[in-house]
Write a structure and sequence with these properties.
The protein has a single domain, classed as Metal-dependent hydrolases (TIM Barrel, Alpha-Beta Barrel), CATH 3.20.20. The protein contains twelve helices and 14 strands. The strands form three sheets. It has an eight-stranded mixed β-sheet. Helix 3 packs parallel to helix 5. By secondary structure, the protein is α/β, with parallel strands linked by helices. Helix 6 links the parallel strand 9 and strand 10.
């Protein structure tokens, strides 16, 4: 399943030097190749999760490892998720074993502006710097609705109209900050450079198109409001996250080239999620917008393929027949597009990074498991070989040395 065209029966994929070299039904096997026999199995691109908190809400859960929400102010674009990521989070190897190869780590949703996200490869590393996807753009986490209302009800903006005023005030400041720096960088260098402001730096880079906006938003009316704000200040929203009511404005999302990072069937757990429907994914897809299966949950991340399968099933129930060739895009090329990385990952196409998963069964089967996972052509997980199964240092524990007298 290439996520770029028809399913290739009895196909061959050749990986070399970290890249996909060839994919097809009649691809010759290089004489020096290490051959993996996938007869009767399925190959897909590595899965991509646009919404994760691994590392910033690490396991085991507790205050000591809860570093995803900087709730000191309703606007914290100055914080960066990567500065909270703990690479020894034992949830990382579990994501890899499920076929997830790229993830976006986001700050939490307590704030109007939560801070910068970071895109990681799901690879073992001593540091977050060793996990960062080379050249990936940062994201800006924004949130609307009940979360910032609730968190700041007693110490800040407490209504939805107050939240919108808060966004606009910050963007006005960012516009002025960007103009001062653009003038300085263009050569008008009288006196000292403008003072740096970490919050305004992040927002200015959004206005320049260098940081991508990922917006936590449940209700259709609020998503429409956020689109209006984006148009007022000249930036783009790459994806609405959670989007329980995305189906209500799927045509609006398609017209504005905004993807929906959503679940198959979550809903009803708070007021703004009451209008969730099981057909959200297929309805968004059918309107021509990019549907994406995301997790926002360490366990859900291990079942992105199953969540997509539920979307296929519900689509058929309501008369929208979506093929597996299309649905595989919900967990591969569509999230790659939302991260601005669809030219490098997300489909099995010659020249792209060799992020590949071999499944023991059809990945849309509830019984399917990822058997082998390659990232940049390196096999990092093999379910059949215990020596090829990543365990973090945290899980290794303390092993006392036996001293023989």
């Amino acid at each position: 399943m290439t996520a770029a065209g028809p399913t290739i029966q009895n196909g061959t994929i050749v990986l070399r030097d970290g890249k996909i070299v060839a994919v097809g039904a009649n691809v010759p096997v290089p004489p020096d190749a290490q051959v993996v026999d996938g007869s009767g199995k399925f190959v897909t691109p590595g899965m991509i999760d646009t919404h994760s908190h691994l590392g910033v809400y690490a396991a085991p859960g507790g205050d000591a490892l809860s570093d995803g929400n900087e709730m000191s102010s309703p606007s914290t674009p100055n914080v960066w998720a990567e500065h909270s990521v703990w690479p020894q989070d034992p949830q990382f190897p579990r994501a890899l074993s499920a076929g997830v190869t790229t993830i976006q780590i986001l700050p939490g949703s307590a704030n109007l502006f939560g801070g910068r996200s970071v895109v990681l490869k799901v690879v073992p590393s001593r540091t977050v710097q060793g996990m960062k996807f080379p050249g990936a753009k940062y994201g800006l986490k924004m949130a609307c609705g009940e979360n910032p209302k609730r968190v700041y009800a007693q110490r800040g903006l407490m209504t939805r109209m107050g939240n919108v005023a808060g966004y606009r005030a910050q963007w006005i400041n960012a516009e002025a900050y960007r103009r001062r720096w653009d003038k300085w960088l263009a050569g008008d260098r009288k006196g000292d450079p403008p003072s740096r402001d970490l919050a305004m730096e992040t927002l200015s880079e959004v206005l320049r198109g260098n940081i991508l906006v990922h917006n936590h938003c449940y209700r259709a009316d609020e998503m429409a409001q956020m689109i209006d704000i984006a148009k007022e200040f000249g930036y783009s929203i790459k994806s609405f996250h959670h989007g329980v009511e995305a189906y209500k404005i799927a045509d609006l999302l398609a017209a504005n080239d905004i993807s929906a990072s959503i679940w198959s069937d979550w809903g009803g757990f708070k007021m703004e999620a009451m209008d969730g429907v099981r057909g959200n994914l297929p309805l968004v897809h059918n309107a021509g917008a990019k549907a994406i299966v995301h997790s926002d949950d360490a366990n859900g991340m291990q079942r992105l393929n199953q969540d997509a399968a539920k979307g296929i099933s519900e689509g058929r129930t309501i008369g929208i027949n979506i093929s597996e060739e299309e649905a595989i895009k919900w967990i591969t090329i569509n999230p790659a597009s939302a991260l601005g990385l669809d030219d490098r990952i997300g489909s099995l196409v010659a020249g792209k990074n060799a992020d590949v998963v071999l499944w023991d069964k059809n990945p849309f089967s509830i019984y399917a498991r990822a058997e082998k996972v390659w990232i940049d052509g390196a096999m990092l997980f093999d379910r059949l070989d215990p020596a090829q199964q990543w365990r973090t240092d945290f899980e290794l524990g303390y092993v006392p040395v036996r001293i023989v007298p």
